[in-house]
Amino acid sequence: MMTQPDSQSTAARDMEGQQLPQRTLWQSVVLLQRQFPLLQILVLIAALAYGTLTMDSFLNPFSVRTMLILASLLGLAALGQTLAILVGGIDVSIPAFIVLGSTLITQITGPEGVPLGLAILVIIVLAGFCGGLSGWIAHKYSIHPLIVTLAMGSLVSGVLLGWTNANITGVAPPFLGALTRPFASTFGLPVPPVVIIWLAVGVIMAVVLKRTVFGRQLYATALNPRAADLALVRTRFIWVTVFAISAIASAMTGLLVVGFAGTANATLGDPYLFQGLAAVILGGAAPLTGAVDYWRTMLGAMIFTVLSTLLVAGGFTEADKQITFGLLILVAVGVYGREPRVKDRV
C-alpha cells in the first residue's frame, strides 16, 4: 500500500529547491559595523600608525598622556550629548553648563570659602534642576530640544554673567589641577586620574544602558516613543532624566576642564559643543546605526583627539581642521545614512 507523504516532508522538499537570498557585501559590512565599530578602530589605528611613522615624538609618554587627557575631557563632555541624541534630541546647552561648573567651583570655593564637597553638591543640584527642566519642557510641550536647550544655555550664561558682573574669572582649586596633570599618577599607575575617571564612567554607562531597567526604557523611548508610551514606559521621566544627566555631566566636566586650564572664563565650554557632536557622530553612537552606546562615543573622542594632534603638528590651521572634520562627519553620516532608520526596523 502506498502512503501519502506528509505535509512536513513535502514542505521540506519544496524548500530544498528554493535558493535563500544572499547578503550583498555591503549588507554584510553594515551588519558587522552595527555590531562592532570596526571602521572606527581601523581609522584610529591608521591615524596612530601615521603619526608614529611621520613624527618622532608622537608616541612619547608626554604626548600620549596629553592626548589621553584631552580625549577624556572631550569624552566626558560628550556623555550627555550621546544620551540626548539617543532619544532623538540634541543638547546645545552643554557649553553653558561647563562654564557653570567651572565658574562656581572657582568662585564659591575661593572668595566665598565654601568647602569643596558642598560646592560640588550645589553644582550638581543646580545643573540637574536646569537640565531636567529642559527635558520636561521639551517633552510636555513637544518643542524640539534644540530650541529649549538653546534658551536654557542662554539663561544660564546670562545669570552667570550677571552674578559675576560680566567678569567670569577664578583660579581652579589645586585638587582639580592634580586630576588633569600629564605626569600625575593614579594609585601608582602612570595614568592621569582623569583618564581613570573617564574609563570608570564608561563602565558605569555600559552597565546602566545594557543591564538596567532605565537603560531598557531609554532604548524603548528612543526606538519608538509612541510604542513606549503604550507599554507604560514613562517617556517624560526618561527625557527629564536624560537632560538632567547631560547637564550634570557637563558641569562636572567643567570642574575638570578648569583644573586643566587653570582658570575659568566665559568661553571655556565653547569648543565642546562641536567637538562633542563630532565625537558622537564619528563614533557612530547615533540612532542611525541602531547600535548606540557610550563606548562608541569614547572611541570617537579618541579619533577626534588623535586627528587633531596630527593636524596641529602638521602645521594645519584651525580652518583646515574645521574643513577636515566637516568632511569626516559628512562621510560618517553618508555611510550610516544608507542604513534603514531605526523606527523602520522596529
What this model shows, in words?
By secondary structure, the protein is mostly helical. It has one domain (38-50, 57-335): ABC transporter involved in vitamin B12 uptake, BtuC (Orthogonal Bundle), CATH 1.10.3470. The relative contact order is 0.17. Residues 14-20 and 340-346 have low confidence and may be disordered. It is built from 17 helices and no strands. 72% of the residues lie in helices and 0% in strands. α15 runs antiparallel to α16. The protein is globular and about 70 Å long.
How many domains make up the coordinates?
1
Shape field? globular
State the low-pLDDT regions, or none.
Answer: 14-20, 340-346
Gyration radius, rounded: 24 Å
What is the CATH top level name? Mainly Alpha
**Structural class of the secondary elements?**
mainly alpha
For the secondary structure, the number of strands is 0
Helix and strand pattern: HHHHHHHHHHHHHHHHH
List the keywords:
346 residues, ABC transporter involved in vitamin B12 uptake, BtuC, globular, 72% helix
SSE blueprint and pairings:
Layout: H1 7-16, H2 25-35, H3 38-54, H4 61-77, H5 79-86, H6 94-108, H7 116-140, H8 145-163, H9 174-179, H10 193-211, H11 213-223, H12 225-230, H13 235-261, H14 271-283, H15 294-313, H16 318-337, H17 342-345
Helix pairs in contact: 3-15, 4-10, 4-15, 5-13, 6-7, 6-8, 6-13, 7-8, 7-13, 10-11, 14-15, 15-16
